[in-house]
Amino acid sequence: MLPAFRLLAVLALSFFSLALRAQHPPPGTAQQSYHYAATESSCAMDPNYVPVPHPGLADISRIFSRLARSQGFDPADFSLELMKDKRGIRQINAMTCPQSQVIWVSVTAWERLQHNEVALTLLLAHELAHAGLRPLVSLRQDVMTGAEEQLLATLTNRQLLEVAADQQAADILVAAGYSIYDINAASHFIMASDVAGLLAAATPTHPAGRDRQNLLTYYLARQYLPEPTEGVLAKRK
Description:
The chain is an alpha+beta fold. The chain is built from ten helices and six strands; from the N terminus they run αβββαβββαααααααα.
């Protein structure tokens, strides 16, 4: 169990709001498959989305290449596309198929996040995280607060994959030199940019936004806040 004052310290920073809805498409179909020689596999986008040429792709590719290299991946093994929703829905969204290492980012995501590079980096890091998640059994073995354990127990394995991706995305950004304050500000910016409130709703594959933000708060507290010194502990007694 984490000391209560450590948890209160990070909660004082305000809740983290990482609710990136990275919906993962089904296996490829004949008309909607993307084939890549580098991976010898295929992957299909949600049929409501279509890839579009867009100048924002160069910006996204630059950020993603830096992230991939920081984690030991070759960016050339991935393919990135910008997409739009044929129904006219404007949503901050990203999707990936880990087996084929193809990542789609909505045009709306780029438009709303392009001037906040940390937020765009956080979105891409979540998708990159799906290329190498640790086993869920390892996630459950972490030393947690009672509240964190109880919250995780309410989630399905599929929802836990998104929690694991949230955590690893935070690790990727910390490794790239961003602070937990940077991550906090970026996550708030993403949520504030979701004017329709579509990112916060729970789905069969994604936990509710508030649950994800609480879980990320717990995770960052136990991973990155320093342990108190004996002097600090003495003052608290």
